[in-house]
Amino acid sequence: MKSEDAEEGKLPAAFDKLSSTDFQVLLTVQALRPTELYRAMKQFAKKTLDLPHLSPSSASLQRLFAAETSSCEPILIIISPGTDPSQELAEAADKHAYREVAMGQGQLENALVEITKAAKSGGWVCLKNLHLVTHWLPVLEKHINSVVQPHSKAEAQGADVDQWPHPDFRLWLTTEPHSNFPSTLLQSCLKVAYEAPPGLRNNMKRTYESWNAEYVAKGNSVTRSTALASLAWFHAVLQERRCFIPQGWTKFYEFTLVDIRAAADILNRLFPPTTSKTPASAPWSSIRGLLCNAIYGGRMDNPFDVKVLESFLNQIFCEDTLNQRQLGPLRLPSSVNIKDYVTAIDALSDVDKPRDLGLPANIGKTAQHIASANVLGQLRMLQRIVGSSNQNDRSLWLRELGPALALWKKLNHSGCLLPNKNGNLYEILMKLGERSLRDAKESPVLSFLHREMTSALSLIATVHHNLGSISKFLRGTCVLTQEMDAVIHSILRGETPTSWLKAWSTGPEDYSSFLRILIAKTQAMEKWLIRAESSTQFLSTEVNYNLADLFNPSVFLNVVRQQTARHLGVAIDQLQLVSNWPRAHRGLGSHLGNQALTISDLHLEGAVLENGKLDDCHAASPTVGALPDIQIAWKSVAMAEPFGLDETVELPVYFDFTRSSLVTQLRVPCLPGSQLKWMQNGTAILLKPF
Q1: Are 113 and 232 found together in one domain?
Q2: Which residue ranges does the record assign to the Dynein heavy chain C-terminal domain (predicted)?
């Protein structure tokens, strides 16, 4: 189980006697070492396809031009956000006349004129950012066909091409991926993926290539040059952390060249020219505020991503950077000479260490797990493709829908959650509703449980009705309705029907996962209801609560807050969530009161909990670790905390590893002064590990 052979897609020697196939080896790794599945899949693909490498070798645009391009085939360069091949294209053009047209308002006709001119004279034309003008691309496609078609026909007939279009003519197109890009234009082009080399060193080199010596030395200020280097490092860290979503960032943020140009312009305005090369003080507070609020932070919608951003701003743009001349592994020169900074950047390693990005040592394992989950999802999508010619084939429907109907029947073998078969459950719900009306202090939590279970049973009834109608239709005992047709085609694509997601918007998009989790949560909720109906006080530290059982755990915590406010006779906004961790908070347990809860089955990502405090992960540490049971309660903000804020860090609590649903936040014990590290590590608590 701990052998490193799993990373190479191999099994221990003891398995050799089983004569397993390569695919069986892959399945075994998936079952026993899921964090190594992605590497095992790569090894399997390389061996099956008999390829030395899965990734194609990189090639310069100059080599591409010489080996694969022609005058009658446009070259479409598919770029990722923040990359720009313009400089490399201009260098590759060399002796050829080269013109660029940035697509936008007023440039559409000019682009067609430039193509015609270049086709006649033998120049190169680059139309940039076609994804901004997808509505106009059919016009462009028609014009391209009129330019290159005469040449193509003449070549096919073996005739003289008469230099039209000119043999040296090349049409380069750049675009970011876009769903509305015409497929016919895509098929007629030579397609090239253009990606910037990864890593902090390459990222900073690209930034300094966009600055010249005069720009870096402007004002003869070492402080300004240091601030520019700090900006380049800061921008590189933000971009490279996107390779580790959702732990580096919870989502992909488009930090682009536009951002760093705007940030550099701010630095220009804040640093006046000087005749002294001695570092002067800098307006760090203004720089941090403008970069956070005006440029980088405005697009962030997760408060903990904003905290990570602020932590890097405070760490990088400060007086310590100016005095110590060190940013991670980068040694900053006391100079205004661009060559000195480029030399310092060249000294960086090709491979970034996790700590250079502020990430834990085991982030590689987390990235492998996320990558394998994405590949498995894409493989499932390939299985779901249904040709348009047989979308209404009843025999196909019978074959493809059978597993869904069988799954639902298996999940509901007892039938206790189905309509007209859950009398005991409805009796409990009625008692709970009556008790909620009688007892004002208990009503918020009991009312929540009542609504939660009622909604779940209503959704189960809808699903059961839909699948039952489909089963009758396949047996020929009822006619097809529009509602049934929509559900059928969603299931054929492997997707959760829209009508089901309307009732549970955060449910899985895969229908089989949706059905399994729906039943599992409802069965767990049934136990919560029985406990609530049989006890005089539902909230208690004597019973363990798993928040992952609930459809809306964040709503439940707010309901507990409301109930606690009624019990204490205070306003809701006067309460804060307090947690009691084993072997950590001194004397906290005695202050929790009778509205406290014991929460179980929590998981920690980005750190480990040792001796009641957060500690660093090692490279071999599991991606997610189990946490001990903790107690939580809503307490008055006026009450003195039995621990200082410097002894804890506020961590987000997400529903699962995707971090798409923020439940709450909890303060967790840590060493004084280590809060910055845990924020940058992306440390978080999860209700479900996977």
Answers
A1: no
A2: 403-687
